[in-house]
Every structure is written in structure tokens, then in C-alpha cells.
Design goal:
By secondary structure, the chain is an alpha/beta fold. The chain has 2 domains: 3-136, Leucine Aminopeptidase, subunit E, domain 1 (3-Layer(aba) Sandwich), CATH 3.40.220; 150-475, Aminopeptidase. It has helices spanning 28-36, 66-80, 95-108, 136-161, 169-177, 191-196, 200-206, 259-273, 319-334, 347-353, 365-378, 389-393, 413-422, 457-468, 471-475; strands at 3-7, 15-21, 46-47, 56-62, 85-89, 128-132, 185-189, 214-220, 229-233, 235-239, 280-289, 301-303, 309-311, 338-343, 358-362, 382-384, 402-403, 430-434, 440-441, 451-452. Strands 7, 8, 9, 10, 11, 14, 15, 16 and 18 form a 9-stranded mixed β-sheet that branches. The longest helix has 26 residues, at 136-161. Mean pLDDT is 94; it is low at 472-484.
Length: 484
């Protein structure tokens, strides 16, 4: 377990990282080395003076905002991860920047070695990170909130790293029951209950697997009265594509098809750890999309929880089905003030945006703007995408209320998926984040360790803090009558 510590002065032992904004003067002892390295403090740059008594790295902050600081802290870890202790010298920097340095450094130090019989030689060896600031007591509360966020991201990353034979829907639910220790209420609906609740789309997607589907509800009541903010996360513990089976190449990555559910669970843990006043729920549809005699098929017509009938076109577009049921069920039960869903939903969004950002769809401009601002602040960027009338028209069916997806090559599938989901939210403020392409990284870089990224945890936690915890801003959001 990585240990984090605050101190008024840099410790004498351990690797040292010093951070300078662009254009800031370099200390005289390092000036010659900085000139030789053409160092100007620009973001993403660093050099080692080589004259210090211990290993020292000078890191450019660029314009020292929070997102830049997270990247700079991560870069320090990437360069100095062979040390067991890393000291971040943040004296003289604004408190939010100093905390972001710590958060970025700690996130980059994450490693997954639970199934290894021998240590990964390329993994971080850091066991301790110290943050040197002028007044540690003044920043302690901010650091505690950052630690809560890091705990949530760590949970999400550990869940995504688990292979499908170790994380069935039932075992996923068991992991989530552990969150009761942090004050979260945990409710698990098993297959028989899913049928009773008319969650027919979720039941169909998971109906052919040896391990049946689940719906998990995590609830943090907070101190605010009224309906909750709702997070919904796609939780496909493995996706073969079903009858529309996937190609073998890269199918192994489908163990991460539950990253949306993992991110929502991590965000709920962060809210609980920092005792957020916001009333929040996470609704997580969990299933394995398998091939078998009981599998649903292309051409089937299914009745959703909302009563809408859906013509199945492609069983490999299962994520939008489980989300549709979860959306309608959540609205019927909780009447939430707003909903954000996260899903590794389409390869289409990766073609559109690559691996740099998630796609953002919404029916509410205020919620969309808040998500974009939250993502920019924590370095989890999103990009607004359209849902046009033509996207909805493409889902018209001859035999049902709508098709699950369109047919033919070169379809804007991410937009079609969002148009499909919008049919199940009615007037509730809603946003959909397609996080395919950002949920994991194959090769480590200066910002991320290889493997799961935990994308979405920091974004959702910051959304709550920025838009739902502040009095005037929170009061501006619509409140619908709750049924619970």
C-alpha cells in the first residue's frame, strides 16, 4: 500500500522532484544544467542537474493549473519510480496545485501484480510519497479529499484488472458488498428478482452465461434532502459478442467491458470516504454476454423495463440494452435529479476520438458543461458529440418500437447508441460518457501506468464537488418527487 505523507520541509532521504512554472527562475546551483538542457519550465519537460547529493529531478509545470500539476506529478513518478521514497517539493505553490501534484504522482505509481509469481521489473517500486508544503496543517483537508479520490480510482483499477474467470457478475457483486464498511448501502438483485422487476433486457443479455446477471445498487445518503444524483455503469464482466461473436484478436480486452461500473463504484467510494453531503446512487447492471442455447439472437424482439419493445440487430451491441433497462429502472425507482452513465460502449467512439478523451452525449446543456469542466480540471477530458434527428430515425424498426442499432457498414454507432439510450430517460437531465478507448492503456507513458486508468472516478467526484455540493449551484438543479 502506497503511503502518503505531508511535511514542512523535504526529507533528507529519497528521490526529490522540484517543480518550476514556465518562465520561473531556476535556482543558481542548477542554472547551468538547465541551460544545457534548454529547460524553460514548459509542461512535459524535465532534467536532472546531476550535481545534487541525491537523485533530483526538475520538472516543468507550464502554466501551473490543477490539470498540468497532475501531469507533472505523474511525470516525476515515471522518472523516479525506481526509488522507494519520492519527495515532491511543492513549497510556494498554490494549495490546489500542490495537492494535484500528489494525486498525479500517486496515480502513476499504481501497479497490478496480484497474479504474478515474480515482480514486474518495469513496475514502480515506490512505497512512499511525501509532499513538502509551507503549511501542512492548512492543506490536510484537501489531501484527505484527494486520498478518498485515489482510493476510489484504485478500486476501479483493481476491478478492471481482474480477469473474467475471477470476476463473474456474482463475484463483482460480492466485491461491492465490501463497500458497506465505508457506509454505503448495497443492494443486489439476482436473476429471479431481475425478472420480477421486468429488467428483461439485462436478463436477456446475461441469460446464456453460466454465471447469471445481477443489478447492484450502491447508495450514499449524504446529508442533503431530496432525490439522489444517479450514476449508471455498464458492467459486462466479459463480452464474447454473443451470437454475433467477436473476432478472436483483442477479445481478451473484453474483461475490461465493466470499466463503467467500476468507475461508478469508485466514485461512490470517494464520496463516502470524504463524507460528501450529496445524496447519490450508483446502479450497476452486471452480466456476461456469452454464447449458448439460451442466448438471445439477432431478430429477437425484447420488451424493456420501460415497456418499449426493442428489435435486436446485433448481440454485440449489448451494452446499450443493459443500460437502457438500468436507466428506466433508476428513474422509476429513484426519480433522480440527474443521471450520468458511463460505458465502454462502442468502437466507433475510439475511431472518432482515439484514446485521448471520452465521448459526451447529453440532453441537458448545463449538465454537459459541468461534466466537461470537471473533466478538464482533473485531466479526464471529454468531447461533446451530437445526437441528431437522423440518428434516431436510423433506429426505426418495422416490427418493434425501435431497433437496438442500425445496419450496414460505416455507421455512426456511438451516436446511434446515445440516441437509443436517450429514449429511456424521458425528461430527466442525463449525460452519457462513452469511455471506450480511455479505460485502459497498453503501454506506460509519463501520465499513466500500463493497464486500467480508473477513468471516470475523478471526473464524477469533481462533478459532485463542483456542481452538487455548492449551495446556490446545487439548488439550481431540478428536483423531482421521489418514490422512495
Amino acid at each position: 500500500m502506497l503511503k502518503l505523507r505531508l511535511a514542512p520541509q523535504p526529507a533528507q532521504r529519497g528521490a526529490l522532484a522540484v517543480f518550476l512554472a514556465e518562465g520561473a527562475p531556476v535556482p543558481p546551483a542548477w542554472a547551468a544544467a538547465a541551460e544545457a538542457a534548454a529547460f524553460s519550465g514548459k509542461a512535459g519537460t524535465s532534467f536532472e542537474p546531476g550535481t545534487a547529493a541525491r537523485r533530483t529531478l526538475i520538472v516543468g509545470l507550464g502554466t501551473p493549473d490543477e490539470a498540468a500539476a497532475r501531469r507533472a506529478g505523474a511525470l516525476a513518478t515515471a522518472r523516479l519510480s525506481r526509488s522507494k521514497t519520492l519527495i515532491l517539493d511543492a513549497r510556494g505553490l498554490p494549495e490546489p496545485v500542490a495537492v494535484a501534484l500528489l494525486g498525479g504522482a500517486a496515480a502513476r505509481a499504481w501497479r497490478c501484480d496480484g497474479f504474478r509469481t515474480r515482480p514486474d521489473p518495469d513496475a514502480s517500486r515506490l512505497a512512499r510519497i511525501e509532499l513538502a508544503v509551507d503549511r501542512p496543517d492548512d492543506i490536510a483537508a484537501r489531501v484527505a479529499a484527494e486520498q478518498a479520490q485515489l482510493a476510489g480510482a484504485d478500486l476501479a483499477r483493481r476491478l478492471v484488472a481482474l480477469p473474467a474467470n475471477r470476476l463473474t457478475p456474482a463475484r463483482f457483486a460480492d466485491h461491492l458488498r465490501d463497500l458497506e464498511a465505508d457506509g454505503l448501502e448495497v443492494e443486489v438483485l439476482k436473476p429471479q428478482a431481475l425478472r420480477a422487476e421486468r429488467l428483461n433486457l439485462l436478463a436477456a443479455v446475461g441469460g446464456s452465461a453460466a454465471h447469471g446477471p445481477r443489478l447492484v445498487v450502491l447508495r450514499w445518503r449524504g446529508a442533503q434532502a431530496g432525490p439522489p444524483l444517479a450514476f449508471i455503469g455498464k458492467g459486462l464482466t466479459f463480452d464474447t459478442g454473443g451470437v454475433s461473436i467477436k473476432p478472436a484478436h483483442k477479445m481478451w480486452d473484453m474483461r475490461a467491458d465493466m470499466a463503467g461500473a467500476a468507475a461508478c463504484a469508485g466514485a461512490m467510494l470517494a464520496l463516502a470516504r470524504r463524507r460528501s453531503p450529496v445524496h447519490a446512487v450508483a446502479v450497476l447492471p452486471l452480466a456476461e454476454n456469452a454464447v449458448g442455447a439460451a442466448a438471445y439472437r439477432p431478430g429477437d424482439v425484447l420488451r424493456s423495463h420501460a415497456g418499449t419493445t426493442v428489435e435486436v440487430i446485433d448481440t454485440d451491441a449489448e451494452g446499450r440494452l443493459v443500460l437502457a433497462d438500468a436507466l428506466a429502472w433508476t428513474i422509476a425507482r429513484f426519480r433522480p435529479r440527474a443521471i450520468v452513465d458511463l460505458a465502454t460502449l462502442t468502437g466507433s467512439i475510439v475511431i472518432a476520438l482515439g484514446h485521448a478523451m471520452a465521448g459526451l452525449y447529453a440532453n441537458d446543456p448545463t449538465l454537459a458543461a459541468a461534466l466537461a469542466a470537471s473533466g478538464a480540471a482533473v485531466g479526464e477530458r471529454v468531447w461533446p458529440m451530437p445526437i441528431s434527428p437522423a440518428h434516431r430515425e436510423d433506429l426505426n424498426s418495422d416490427i418493434a418500437d425501435l431497433r437496438q442499432c442500425a445496419t450496414g457498414p460505416l455507421q455512426p454507432d456511438a451516436c446511434h447508441a446515445a440516441a437509443f439510450l436517450r429514449e429511456f430517460v424521458d425528461q430527466t437531465p442525463w449525460a452519457h460518457l462513452d469511455i471506450a478507448g480511455v479505460e485502459q492503456i497498453e503501454t506506460a507513458d509519463d501520465e499513466h501506468a500500463a493497464g486500467p486508468t480508473g477513468f471516470g472516478v475523478r471526473l464524477l467526484d469533481r462533478l459532485v464537488a463542483m456542481r452538487f455540493e455548492a449551495g446556490e449551484e446545487a439548488a439550481a438543479w431540478p428536483r423531482l418527487a421521489s418514490t422512495t
